[in-house]
Amino acid sequence: MKNKFLPLLVIACLCLTSYGQSTSYKQQSDVNGAIVASSSDAVVQTEAGKVAGYLEDGIYRYKGIPYAKAERFMPPVAADRWESVRSCRQYGPTCPQEKRTGWANDEIAFAFNWNDGYTGEDCLRVNIWTPGIADGKNRPVMVWLHGGGYSTGSGQELPSYDGTNLAKKGDVVVVTLNHRLNVLGFLDLSAYGDKYAKSGNAGLLDLVAALQWVNKNIKAFGGDPSNVTIFGQSGGGGKVSTLLATPAAKGLFHKAIVQSGSMLRTMESTYSRRIGKATVEALGLNAATIDELQKIPYEQILAAGNKAVAKVRAEAEKEDALSSFIFGWAPVVDGDVLPAQPFDPQAPEMSKDIPVMMGTTLHEFTSSTYMPGLRNISKEDAIKMVRQRYGDRADDFLAAFAKAYPDYQPKDLLDTDFIFRPSTLEQGRLKAVQQGAPVYMYMFAWESPVMDGMLRSTHCMEIPFVFNNVVRHASMTGGGAEACALGEKMSSAWLNFARTGNPNAEGLPQWDTFTKENGALMYFDNQCEMKYNHDKELIDIIRTFPTRGF
Question: If 0-12 CB within 10 Å is exposed, 13-18 middle and 19+ buried, where does residue 39 land?
């Protein structure tokens, strides 16, 4: 059965060793919000040269530090060295991408409050927040991978991504980053010779290069290169899932958190090569002229690439192979950079000993958020829509839903997460049966009061709580007392997991590890609780109606 709710998903997706010490370090503290930024303070030596940041509110901040460089469609290489002190106090360029369509919706634009910055192909940059430099401490490091699938986004796009509060609260080093996206990161040109053999995974190799940079340089920023946690949401969660199966990333991180982005499969080379060839042909090029791609304006390549994706996606649908098109543009199983599918049919052996935490929001791609007419839908009309999707299994679905969520509202039936919750459970099961490192599962169910509650616990809603940025991102959370209390609990759990591999924290019930049998998950709401297989029957029914492309 075709998924009648998939267009809503599309809409929602668019709304997402030490190298020296610092020089002339002084112990200073800012007063009343003062910023310390000078030629002698907050200066750190990296492999490529010295960088100058600034001190504000007790946290040192460094933005836009180059971690690598790359020619179009080529693997990244070490960044150029510089001689003088490089000012790194403002975010660097983000990867070129399409204009964010979310700006067309005033309510959504208000809630998300994006900072899209400026674009440029020299976008391989990291941003760092740290409580101390050259102070002899080895702090846990938390590396955030942004969402937006593999097409859009940046390490600065949401107020939630600011690492100040997390770094201060947990005495950790927080890192965000930019990498190549869409055609620049994932256009597979491997059919045109060895030169382009890794082009389909250029963006994935950027992530590896960033982690390598962290490994070599983060000690100078007060971080411990032997205690690195990668975490990400949506497409960022997909990146975490993929890095767990990427041999070049082995040893560069030690814990992983997948937020609303459990990715079992990614692009197959059969289809990525088709996309590459279709793109090249649309641009009027061939094998003899392929290098002309270096000169063609980005916008032309992107337009040709998007048309190629649509063409090959339609072909894949006829061949019943849409599972390769999770995000359209995506890393490719090439037998080298990515030897096999990340979690299909099994969890990768290389990351067996990596503790993983994973979860979703209750509503994820909320139909009622993006379609106002559904916000006050009657139970009768909601059931009609359920019957359109589930046919003769509709009654089973309704019974299972009532069992899982006995106090549901009619719109809840339409706001059901049929995308990430099933794949997260499967990813957790595959990881747990390895009997290696522990797996922890969660569900974020708190509903935002902003704009009369239209956002619910939508996709991205947990991010301000994870970063302890509930007030900083009040346009999404409301910034009230209940939200702040939950933010304290959740950020503590993420910090504890980054520090020890165990998320148990004060104010939460005992958080049991997830197994195939117990289905244990932490249910985050005003009253947090542990649930065990609470929605098993519901998910079993949803799985019989697979969502094409996921």
Answer: exposed
Residue 20 token pair = 């020296």
Cα distance between residue 357 and residue 353, in whole Å: 13
* Of the residues 325, 341, 370, the one at which a domain ends: 325
Residue 64's domain comprises 1-69+106-266+326-550
Name the catalytic one among 146, 254, 459, 473. Answer: 459
Q: What is the DSSP letter of 94?
A: B
Q: With 0-12 CB in 10 A as exposed, 13-18 as middle and 19+ as buried, what is 434?
A: middle
Annotated active-site residue 234? The verdict is yes
Q: How far is CA 298 from the centre of its chain?
A: 24
Q: How far apart are CA 328 and CA 321, in angstroms?
A: 13
- 89 in a structural domain: no
Q: How many CB atoms lie within 10 A of CB 490?
A: 27
Instruction: Judge if 308 and 404 occupy the same domain.
Output: no
Q: How many domains does the chain have?
A: 2
Q: Which of 364, 423, 448, 457 is catalytic?
A: 364
Residue 146 designated active-site:
no
What residue spans of 104-201 are helical by DSSP H? 106-112, 164-170, 182-186
Do 291 and 440 lie in one domain? The reply is no
The reported pTM is 0.93
Please tell me the distance from the alpha carbon of residue 343 to that of residue 492, in angstroms, as a whole number: 29
pLDDT in tens, the chain (550 residues): 334 333 333 333 433 433 333 333 333 444 456 899 988 889 999 999 999 999 999 999 999 999 999 999 999 999 999 999 999 999 999 999 999 999 999 999 999 999 999 999 999 999 999 999 989 999 999 999 999 999 999 999 999 999 999 999 999 999 999 999 999 999 999 999 999 999 999 999 999 999 999 999 999 999 999 999 999 999 999 999 999 999 999 999 999 999 999 989 999 999 999 999 999 999 999 999 999 999 999 999 999 999 999 999 988 888 876 666 667 899 999 999 999 999 989 999 999 999 999 999 999 988 999 899 999 999 999 999 999 999 999 999 999 999 999 999 999 999 989 889 999 999 999 999 999 999 999 999 999 999 999 999 999 999 999 999 999 999 999 999 999 999 999 999 999 999 999 999 999 999 999 999 999 999 999 999 999 999 999 999 999 886 643 3
Same domain, 212 and 320: no
Which of the following is catalytic: 234, 262, 323, 491? Answer: 234
Listing DSSP states for 462-486 in one string gives THHHHTT-TTTTHHHH---HHHHHH
Cα separation of 359 and 234, whole Å? 11
Domain boundary (325, 342, 375) is at: 325
CA distance 275 to 206: 21
342, 138 Cβ separation under 8 angstroms? no
Our answer to whether residue 364 is catalytic in this structure is yes
For β-strands 139-145 and 173-177, DSSP reports them as parallel
